[in-house]
Sequence to fold (391 residues):
Amino acid sequence: MSNSYRFHCPVKIVSGENSLDKLPGEFKQLGGKRILIVTDQGVAKAGLLDLIQGAVAESDLVIGAVYDRVPPDSPVSAVLEIVELYKQHDCDAILAVGGGSAIDTAKGVKIKLADDDIDLMNFKAVLRMVKPTRPLVVIPTTAGTGSEVTSAAVISDPDKGIKLSLISPSMPPNTAVIDPRMTATLPPRLTASTGMDALTHAVEACLGIQKNPISDAVAASAIRLIFNNLVEAVRNGKNLQARLGMANAATLAGIAFSNSMVTMVHAIGHSLGAVCHLPHGDAMAICLPDVLEFNLDAIGRDLGELLLPMAGATEYVQTPESQRGVRVIEKIRELRKTLHELSGLPITLKDAGVSEEKLSAVADVSPKDGAAFYNRKKFTAEDALAVLKRM
Fold:
């Protein structure tokens, strides 16, 4: 690990019960008066937009237009449609409400509105974009991706079969509003899956070549919150304290991994998504313990330190230092088993419907994934295949 590092989080975070009520004030500070809402059908059908309508009803903030058809994988066609809608309705700010797809799509809209000449499928052009952007406020409705605080967005072009993870200093939202009511309708199965995504972000943030003391501290807070709240959020989705704990955890994990990056778990998980269309949170849940075991000889001491936020001081002190990394993996397996029993979260590739014939193709692309670069231990396609077979 290098002794020098950079840590950056430009997003203002407004968190707590009824924090939606602060929306008008946040947009006023940003100069936004007429907002375009970007969301998806799931959010619209769950009635969550009613909460937003209620929050702005007695203010000067106007909802100029609503785009509620964001599909998964944030296609570039949706971005262009929303840009046109924004212009037609004379909007001056954007509000994204949803999971990673809605937030990533809104980030793409933000870039395109700032510079219409930019091709969103041109990674370098997006990275170098420096023109002033419109205000963007985001409200996550899942507690997993951390997209509300990152400078990255995954945008796809299904016609060309392209899916790019774009990064730009202009990409992060101005403000993230974390209100537990917005995740209260998330079903147990999705709560479990997105929770394991957040846990993987936090754990990997502490293990790669770019880890640093600040990202370690932020990630440890996320891990503590997840182990204290995820099971309860799955078991009793109406428990707003558990929901708030998980929402804060996902945001903290997003801040941590966007500074220290993710590693081999994501490299294999991304590949499972690309080849087998496995949902990302499910892939994280399946991959996490086996990949940690593969890396144990390189990460054992740092992994062992995570026993403190996972299990508390008593178990940490009572576990010999040489066994703490192993115990962390056991704790993750125990959590995963409980989530499987409560919600049906898949914990093997077979559970998730992934056929063995596809494993070689997944293994071949895994070492080429960008996240593989940050893994402390170099791995080959053969290594990835061996780990995949254990899953």
In short: The beta strands are 12-15, 34-38, 62-67, 93-98, 136-140, 152-157, 162-167, 175-178. The first strand starts at residue 12 and ends at 15.
